[in-house]
Protein 1
Amino acid sequence: MGMTFAEKVLAKASGNESVVPGQVVTVRPDHLLTHDNTAPIIKKVENELLKYGVCDPELPIIVLDHVSPAANEKAAAQHKSVREFVKSQGIRHFYDVGMGICHQLVMEEGLAGPGKLIVGSDSHSCTYGAIGAFSTGIDRTEAACLLLTGETWLRVPHSIKITLSGRLRPPVAAKDLMLAIIRELGADGANYCSVEFHGGIDALTMDDRIAMCNMAVEMGAKNAAFPVDEIAVEYMNVNRATGEPLWADADAKYVAEYSFDLDSLVPLVAIPHRVDNVRPAAELGDITIHQAFLGTCTNGRLSDLHEAARILKGRSISPDCRLLTVPASKKVLDEALADGTIAALSAAGSLILPSGCGPCMGAHQGVLAPGEACISTANRNFRGRMGCVEADIYLASPATVAASAIHGRITDPREEYRA
Amino acid sequence: MRVWKYGDDINTDLLFPGKYTYTCATPDEIRPHLLEDLDPEFAGGVREGDIIMAGKNFGCGSSREQPVVGLRAVGIQAVVAGSFSRIFYRAAINQGLLLVECSEAVYAYREGDKVEIDAREGVITVGESSYRFPGLPDEMLAIRDAGGLLNYTLQKLERERGMA
């Protein structure tokens, strides 16, 4: 019988000829991603690290991005301890504050590649399926043990097949497509499953695929992946990524199959407080927005900034609304500076914040006040997510966020395209 | 024993707000913020041996082990839910927190019912009725029996390299 993508990668990684869903396999991941939580992770195994050291200095990828730059003394002390750890263990894949968001950097730096197995102590570690890697989230304690042993267990997941057809009609974006998929499957619709994207994927850019794999965890997926095509190979050449492409056999077995037509999509918004509570932007009525947030590991890439700038260029955001722009990495920031995108966003009234996670999980920079609403390009609109339990978070594409910032209310970006 | 009952899709931000993630790691730091945005009475009222019951997809959202560490520290006997999110499930095994996946038991529970859990046999009794729940695979039992993943790993390392 044929194998799915997940079965192929996990068979290879565990030294088996074949594996079946439900089987527990022991694997040695190619990389382990950690971020600001590296400090508590190394603290768990302080003595053992002194005794045995990190099992392989090439294994960890460490990025200081979540509270970056440090917002208080405690965060600063944690960053400092991580820097000391990195030096003492000779860890090469280290990115200090301001270099960018971990998932963006793993992709940009070519650390994720086809057929690779990457685990991370962050739920959005499923992002790297965009380039045909099997990547998934784990917890801090597991990350600590991995530093010592390089080994962990994974249960071989069942797989879900999603077939795509047609083309997105701008300003409809990959974010809208993923919100449509999550609406259809539900917040736990892919729980424990591997999600494979099939069909007309050449209609999607690498940035589109990254945004989609990033959000797969919002429907419970263990991982999500695209096959490696010419678009992915071109990206690999630019980022010097390596790997061996693996993909599902034609007769692989799936627990569920879905189809989505990109032509028929409209701009969508996830309304509070659930990611699967998705409605067309045009049907939401008059919803006042106090803050708009452009960035995060979902939608902080150059193409996202371009899309927002296209709508905001020569316009001004509402005097009653704040717009925060956070480029996903220093590289994105530099490119957006060079091509005038940052100038256009700033001229329209946006604050430009340092590359990092920013306001996404409410630790600092752009925390909301009670009674406020934010429209965000992030991946979660959970109650309290942006630091205030009495605030509302709406999720949308960069175009919808930009259009909404102009009017201070949720706006279908097609209105601005027509204007 | 008290049962704290909640709904579907209880995410990790509700169990332990993200804003504290990079400043709270120890049980003492975590405890006052447990379930802060879901149930303000929980942190002050929870007692050793209490049970949490919830609907499907418990623990969805961020990779965040503070809720698991915190629930263990306050003595939560088990979380009984229709289903669990996978990172939360792994974290629970790694910290030795008992998770019971049994939607029938959750549906059956009425306020005041006595709930008893036999983890070894995989049986949960709610009031007068009993329900079975799946036991853990051997690999995960070994981690639990060692007192969590950290102990399990350190014992293994000691065996493998300690002699060298």
Protein 2
Amino acid sequence: MRGAKSAKWVTGAIVVAMAATACGGDKSDSGSGLTDGKVDPNGTLVVQTSEPQNPLQPANAKESQGHRVLKSLFSGLVTYEPGTGKIKNINAESVTSSDAKHWTVKLKPGWKFHNGEPVTAKSYVDSWNWSANTKNNQINSQWFSDIEGYDDVHPAEGDPKSDKMSGLKVVSDTEFTIALKSKVSYFNYKLGYSVWYPLPDAFFKNPKEYGQKPVGNGPYKFESWDHNDKIVVKRFDGYQGPDKAKNGGITFKNYTTADAAYNDLRSNNLDWIEQIPDTSLTNYKQDLGDRAITNEYSAIQDVAFAFYTDQWKSIDPKVLTGLSMAIDRDTITKTTLHGSRVPATSFVAKGVIGYQANSCGEACTFNPEKAKQYIKDGGGVPGNKISIQYNADQPHKTWVDAVCNSIRKSTGIECVGDSKPNFKADLDQREKKQVKSMYRSGWVLDYPVNANFLRDLYGSKADGNQGAYENKEFDELAAKADQANTLDETVKLYQEAEKTLAKKLPVIPLWYYATNAGQSTKVYGKMPYGQDGDPILTDVQVKQK
Amino acid sequence: MGRYVARRLLQMIPVFIGTTLLIFLMVHVLPGDPIKALWGDKAADPAQVAVLRHKFGLDLPLWQQYTNYMADLFQGKFGETFGGRQVSDLMAESFPVTIRLALVAFVIEVVLGITLGVFAGLKAGKAVDTAVLIFTLLVISVPVFVLGYIFQTVFATELGWVTPSVQDSEDFTQLILPGAVLGSLSLAYVARLTRTTISENVRSDYMRTALAKGLPRRRIVGVHLLRNSLIPVVTFLGTDIGALMGGAIVTEGIFNVQGIGQQLYRAVSQGEGTTTVGIVTVLVIVFLFTSLIVDLLYAVLDPRIRYA
């Protein structure tokens, strides 16, 4: 039924608008042009989410759902320009440093929290001290680890020695300084993340209760939270920032399955779906016409080698290059993944400062002949069989099978998917270093600087390096980059470091992520997206009814 | 009677302890560290992991975790979710929704199921009977989720009578569609059970006697026949209440009903032992009580059944 109906929409937006009137009664697809009608500045939106895992406290959202709500309620010091990744001041007048170690933050005066309290330097310092403290169980507390005195509030073991980090000093109501443990030339770039939001005095009296009814300083004001159902926020008219809301408010509505959300989107009960369900990927573009959204964002999917296994322990890098070349990324992204991914040519995702196309070079181009040759030259794959570990609770099976097929066809090496029931089990194997051969790995940006994709993943001692990859050259360059005084220097040195990865692959880069989403007929114009793959909700406009 | 009830209630204690222990063990056996999984793809923070494990008592040996849990439970405390919410609050929000959904399903299955069964049973072998048999066979053989998607496509997407998913889980009228899907399988069983016993009993001696006495047909079918025929049906319905509440997981997912099924699914997939055990414990209690009520109902339906 859906297929037959879908065919009508292929010809695009204008036909959709005309056809809609022709088939009355068909409520679901009656769309009109994206910019027909007038904008209602007070119109409200309903967007998809799921229940935030934790109370709504700035440093407590690791999942995108809680993060999305927090982002509407709070404004940080800086944010990123979509597309370029450059930072732009929001609550900050300036964030400066002369040596990359000592930073001075000046705030714009006159800002207020939704409860009337002024936003001061103290609001930031108190917030960060509280969030970094192990006692307060904030999932993202490690973000503060650059700051001097972090180990006092967040010791590796035992109780915190202090509840203040020595590196934070309030100078005046609108100025504070940050002393870091060592140089971090891109520290101001980190400040765009939600952990760095300020908190009003009222918060500290009862953080737990406050987490249920957050009071922020952002473009929207908290209205209500019906657990497991919805969170409602309204535009805050006293907002001082440059990113004022262009709509009246947002309802974050809880959906447990993507299919239910998609059905609601088609009948206009929902205005934005975060991800089209797999079952509808083949036909959503026909269903939604120009309301379908495909948006690339800064994240990458890799397959990583477990270098601690006998198979890869003393492998010739040529073999790894060969395996990588055996994968037909173009065809897989187009067919198996329905164009929802973009073939990767480097280790850093697009849209990130320092991104260099083709840093992976030859290794990321499909060439079965050369692949075979490389593997042969390198002495072959021990056991002539590889496996790719993945978690079966997310839709990875199809592409893992496709990658395996591609390797098998090109090189004759046996390749199988090694599925773990869920993400926890998958992580468990990785952590205990029990991966048999290779594993699925991926990275979504934290902040748009190439160091984020390289430093945390491929350094010999990096937390994210779960495959026991070691590359002395890379380590040296990364260490130098970390010691640089300016962002430009850091970025450049990391670009050099990235080039060393192409010689001895730590992972096989597969593709960059894109979201397949959709919007309802109530949204005016196309929804603007940020680099993290989330829409910029303050900029979304709603049509007049 | 009183002694019988008391004995039954006492029997619940070992059942209760046994089930909670089993679930506790099963949750524990699930692979992976639920605390570390809170960090997702990124590396977990070891110091914070240690603090959280300690907070939730996950650093203790399993037997101690279990005894602590039971001790809390007897004080009426269900513990906390990883997100810091009380499990009892969580259940207080979701159970009413699922109970409502189960109630809608239950009413549909009782009314429709028994009516269909009686008609089919009285007309055994006739066209009505065959139609009911074919209909119920169809319902039994189609999996619930398929039925759910069919109903959703037909009634919501195509006909537009309702919204595809439940917009307000508090609203009874919106629960009719998911309720019908949820109750459909049991409806088929109820209809078939009723049909069989009715068609058997309709030929029994007491029916002939009642007929000979010249009683009105309504009274013969309504009181004499139905009362005797309903015993197996009531047994089924009793155990079905528990099954409906547990079985709501699939239906709730399709229609986005924010009930206990969704909570249970979330808790299991996130490895939240306290939430999982808490919800299942309540479900076990529901099962135990409904089966007790069913047993007591026997005596009402058939006075020959007596309890010491």
Protein 3
Amino acid sequence: MRNKWLPWLLLSPALFLIVSLTVYPLLNTFFISFREYNMYSLVTGMSEWIGFEHYKQVLSDPFFWTVLRNTVMLGFACVCATMLVGLLVALLLNTNFKGSKLLGIVILIPWVFPSIAGGIVWRWMFNDQYGVVNYGLTRLGLDMFDGFAWFNQPFTAFFVIFLMVVWQSFPFIAVSLLAGFQSISSSLYEAAEIDGANSWVKLTHITLPLLKPLLLILFILSTIWNFKIFDQIYVMTEGGPARGTYVLSLYSWSEAFNVLNFGKASAIAMLMFLVLMAFIISYIRLFREDKEVRA
Amino acid sequence: MKKRYCYFGLSLLLVFVLLAAGCTSEQTGGDNSAPETNEGPADSDSSPDLEATLRVWIMETGSPEEAQAYFERINAQFNERYPNVQVDVQFIPWLSAHQNLITAIAGGNAPDVSELGTTWVPEFAAMGALLEMNAYINDWGLADGWVPALEEAGTYMENLYGIPWYAGLRQLIYNKDIFEQAGVEVPETYDELLAVSEAIMQNTDAYAFPAVGISQHFVLPMVWHFGGELAVLEEGDDNELRWVSKINEAEAVEAFKFYTDLYKAGYVPEGAVNWSVLDTRQAFAQGDLAMTIDVAPGINAMINENSEIADKIGVAPLPSKANNASFVGGSNLAVFKQSSHPELAAAYVNVLLQEDNIAEWAQLTGFFPGTLAGLDNPVFHEDEHLKVFADALVHGRSYPASPSWGQFEGDNLFVTAVQEIMLGNKTAQEALDEVAEAMNNAFEKE
């Protein structure tokens, strides 16, 4: 019976860190979102309880819905493209051609590249006057790209952000999937080959089903990463033109540290949290239901 | 078994002790008062053998080593009078400074002295975070010795909170070669600006004028030039003075329309909707832009980019209509209320304000001193470029000293309006009506 407290005692340092660094800020954000918490509150520590006022205000603001749509569409596009590119690159590396080891190292470069530095480089690449992309496209004979202003319209600006995010996040997916591929016993493929399966059948009937748990985790991780994209957009467009490339994380940050309306910023952060949770829960259900059917 | 538990217990204890030590050392670092010496009157604070640590936050500059050396000399001067006070100068980047200061204030951990961007002074003063400096400046005999625009920016509710330190302002910078090629003179009025721009577009390969999206400091002073105001203090029904936006009135709308029409007329590339001052510098340095509007250090940045531009650069006053007041920005020094040694902090500020010190720092940063005595230094009047800036400085203006102004800038309120007009999403009147509404909403909460 003396052992009863020991596990808790041993857990306490980790628990202490988790509670103070994760649970407390989350709860605090939750509470602040129900209060009028502005710059005066910072000094006096006093704030007024206003219930769901911030949520009402945010949810009735058409700009919030635009930003939410931007966030979901950009996030979803990035997740899909990242997974797809990651999968293709992993398949390529898995074929073990000459130089595949070297390529495996080279593709990690975007992933280890700091996102701020990456953002600056991409912004310059797509600069309207001096950017290498417009130069290259013009040289290919596409004259419409001479001085083409990528960041003038939200759609093309988002497209550049999308490319940059995918460029930066596919290596992790590719390397993880490659490790997954190599954990599958080759006897399964040999057996399938005897039954006359081609590569496509092998991929869809052996590789992917066996990697389902891994895919689920990768889906969830990239969803989390891609829905809270901040640095890339901050560096490349700062939310512009005319706030056209705002996403929820940028919106929340701006309300907090530019407008100093911490209550509203917290409400936006909580809504963003809910959206993310909804996506993650639906992923988990999607994958789990499948499993039950098979069982 | 027992023994092993004992080890676990011990190591656990160690972890907690370390954590606790981490916490307390953090606190003493922030509080930095010698404990229990604060009960005496404030005067005891300035006794020369007092032992204390003073925390000073200064914004990072382009030349970190020189800044470091400068502050070592300043600290040495300060220590002649207060030998037992240790001054801890920290350099923080402009980009994160606002956020760092807010976090520090909220945590009760503000520095004793900090450099503040001019628009932050009213904001922090309204929060009650800053010490009012009227008594000190009278002591120093500096009550009337400031560059007017910076003094205005440092004043909140008729009290001075931000001590003017250094000032920056923008003037018209032009490429002499391109002007010669186009056969035009430097424009002195806005009508001339139009004619000159047209001639440059016709006769040279360069673009004419930097009507870019991300630069409120280009367009907002034009509102003054066209005879308008950004916001004025008016007495409300409750007899309290309150800022009221004037940005959607006729003159301001005309100025915004004039500025964005320069973009629409193609005097800058189409992508300039998203150009910031960094892009205009680049384009000017490459000889692709005939005119730009920039601060004095911007000239050095252009020369660094392309040294061939150096002898082609000319500097002239901004074009004029009703007037040609420049926006004067820059930095103020402030003492925080949370400081446990306000007297020492003020004494430190005073050292920085000494004529030679303030002039040297201004030179080092490429800006101009915030005191008239410092500005009299010949180095600011001998150079033909600097002279144009220095002459315009005393006639310059600051933005309305409202606590909300920093939020407008941070939230890109004016930039968004300019971009919307440029892209044709809204007319100048529509966009500015919205800006005025947003401004007045914020002013009402002050």
Protein 4
Amino acid sequence: MSAIEIPKPDPGILARRDAILAGLAALVPPTSLITEEDERRAFDTDALTAYRRIPLAVVLPETTEQVSKVLTFLNQQGVKVVARGAGTSLAGGAIPSEDAVVLGVSKMNRILDVDTDNRTIRVEAGVTNLGVTGAVSHLGFFYAPDPSSQLACTIAGNIAMNSGGAHCLKYGVTTNNVLGVKIVMIDGTVLEIGGAHLDAPGYDLLGLIVGSEGQLGIVTEATLRILPLAEGARPMLMGFQSAEDAGACVAAIIASGIIPVAIEYMDRPAIKVCEAFAHAGYPLDVEALLIIEVEGSEAEIEDLIGRITKIAADFNPSGLRISQSEAESAAIWKGRKSAFGAMGRLADYICMDGTIPTGQLSAVLTGIARICDGYGLRVSNIFHAGDGNLHPLVLFNANDPDEQDKAERCGEDILKLCVDLGGCLTGEHGVGIEKRDLMTYQFNTIDLDQQMRVKSALDPQWLLNPHKVFPLQGRPV
Amino acid sequence: MTSILLPDTEAEIEAIVHEAAQSRSPLAIHGGGSRPIGGIVHAHRTLSTQQMTGITLYEPSELVLSARAGTPLALIQETLAANRQRLPFEPIDYRHLLGNHGTPTIGGMTASNSSGPRRIHSGAARDALIGIRATTGRGETIKSGGRVMKNVTGYDFVKLMAGSWGTLGVLTEVTYKLLPEVETEVTLLLSGLSAERAVAAMTAALATPFEVTGAAHLPAGDGAPSRTVLRIEGFDASVTYRTARLEGLLRPFGSFETLGLEASRVLWKSIRDVEALETPHDAAIWRISVRPSDGPEVGAKLEAALGSRLLYDWAGGLIWASAPADGDGGAAVVRAAVGAVGGHALLVRGSPTLRASVPVFQPEAPAVAEMSRRIRATFDPAGILNPGRM
Ligand SMILES: Cc1cc2nc3c(=O)[nH]c(=O)nc-3n(C[C@H](O)[C@H](O)[C@H](O)COP(=O)(O)OP(=O)(O)OC[C@H]3O[C@@H](n4cnc5c(N)ncnc54)[C@H](O)[C@@H]3O)c2cc1C
Ligand SMILES: Cc1cc2nc3c(=O)[nH]c(=O)nc-3n(C[C@H](O)[C@H](O)[C@H](O)COP(=O)(O)OP(=O)(O)OC[C@H]3O[C@@H](n4cnc5c(N)ncnc54)[C@H](O)[C@@H]3O)c2cc1C
């Protein structure tokens, strides 16, 4: 039924399954090896749940050394490996094939070192994003990238996907906040890249690893920057009668020299659903809502809110509200952060993740509406407006195979539109299997070949997460 | 005599590099030639981006700018200043330190991943770089990233190209995200602290929410006491507030003088460009990156063994150090001191003889070096781009 192809398993590997399991059993403790079908089934998909394959086996190592041994062995055996954090990838990045071993880092979840003097923290890769902040918040620090999935998703997954979040407008995404990693290459070699100091010598290998979607090596540890918590932060809500007004307002705020910590956008359907879920007081009679958060001291917050309110006045805002309490702020963010979940209660959807130049906001929204109309599907738009990262949710009925197919094609058209408008296919969720075949739309053969050569140089047999990121055909020799 | 090639277009660069790859004859890659850093490149021909100039995209309200690689940095900065914007990372102007008169280009700045004092707050050049076009050693032009703030489509060659010193490709166009110029800035100045106390003060300042965008320590010299300086930038009222709070919190370290906008700008430019170590012109200069808390120990070792003069930036995490020009230019001492704590050292200034005789960049662990070698081989299989530089 589904349109995205997952390659057929290699019968040779399936036939050797017992020997492979025996080999793995010699390398990790029994509690770290999952072989029963029922238990393996828990690893058959990620948050792109329309696609599932039960892996050959699941290994959950406890140490870098075990990861190294497992990879050395699987490399010798020619067995594919799919790294896994918490499995929240929306792009199908952690979905296995039946002839692949899933290597999960969930047992590697220790905080190794907290160093507030140098503003760093060293963690095992399976620590959750929120777990990092949790380890330092009592010391007045936090870890900046904040994907909405932060309660569950791991630092490993964040690094692989270069994840972002609502507050990335000011603080950057994962790649701007990682200082070093310990990574195991497919041949078992363990590398330390970067460290607690700021500059890494030689090529920026760290920059290459971040965002490489588990295709170049398995990350087992990371050194991250931590930042002092702001004195205070406050969100405000602004409603608008049109997407154009909201978009122009965002541009005017940024042009004025203010970089808020977050500017989030929701359209009418999203507002309705999120308000029903979080009771945050979102205005319901508007076409577009901006959540703008500023931070600093009480006086600074007032000053910034004053400036923003004044700028906004040119764009006919309605339902302007400034949070009056911690509880209200929490509710406002709860609505936004649970938007995907709340929408999921109403309908099945696929969540797209294109990025556009912010000046194209109204053009893209008009285009998205036209595309969805054309397919007869409903859409709801939620996005990080400050940096042009869109999340259109294309709604469909998952029990209807035709609708799923339509929704996927509709999503593709939306992403192509983003590229046409000067943007890109994915701003934070990654390519995975989902956008693999669209890569030729954004990149030409020369671009893609060079990326694939790097893959080949570091993983000559293409065993690490092989059917992701690049179109299945056209792998260069 | 080397010949200089002056392509006007990407297509011409492709043709030059392609031919060079075919004939396996190396090319030296030049922007403005203002930062002759790194190993000596042996090449009979130089490819200069001098004629590859021009801003190709500037959207002030989107905080984004693209330019062809040979565009003089001065032009970029004038254009940004006219719109009250700036490059966030405060790239160093090496011309004083290195004593040359080139015209710095945005491509050269990118290839050297230049960043100054604001690095601790706003990141390095690589953090603001969002898109590149580059001609690889195969004579093919690739693109990575784009003009949008967030992009995780495919491998991030943008970061890989920043700081690759022209050994992976000839950058033809770069795109940066920008920041608004600030309304004002203030510097708090504390005199007479030892390096240890200075780092403690700077560390304490950076643990506050008051957004310190510069933290440096200039040791005592020529009869003047040491100076420890902290910069705060932003809107007027906010700077006033944060300055006062910081002064209060850091009282245990002594009392502060305050430098206003003009004086502060002059001071931070001199720190950025390492003016304190400009003379004597023949001394070797090292740029050392360590954890801030390790800074004083490394600095003390260099002072004791080499008589180094020092400048601490990045709250102690970046040490600029002079060393005698003769012998190994202090390499053995510097590498041992850095090796003891973890970090890295780059020989920024040294005679060609010195740069030919000691590793200019920090030697990498064998496995990391192997990974770099494999990556370089995919971009430049014939090894013709700036061979010997890194
Ligand atoms: C409700 C919801 C909201 C979300 N919101 C956001 C958001 O705001 N911003 C955002 O950026 N993303 C968001 N996501 C997407 C997702 O949470 C992120 O991509 C996240 O980083 C994935 O982390 P994970 O630990 O779940 O990784 P997984 O899903 O397990 O894996 C993701 C990728 O990382 C690779 N990987 C895992 N472990 C390793 C390792 N040790 N070494 C190398 N590669 C590895 C996998 O192979 C896979 O390619 C959201 C997802 C959901 C379900
Ligand atoms: C008015 C003014 C203000 C300045 N302000 C700052 C400032 O605020 N911050 C700052 O850092 N600097 C500043 N500078 C200096 C400037 O950033 C750098 O010195 C300059 O950008 C280096 O470029 P270059 O072209 O001279 O590099 P070169 O010395 O020519 O090259 C440096 C390295 O990069 C390589 N390279 C050069 N071009 C390319 C290319 N296109 N592709 C691949 N590799 C290449 C070379 O091979 C070499 O390895 C300023 C300069 C001026 C004139």
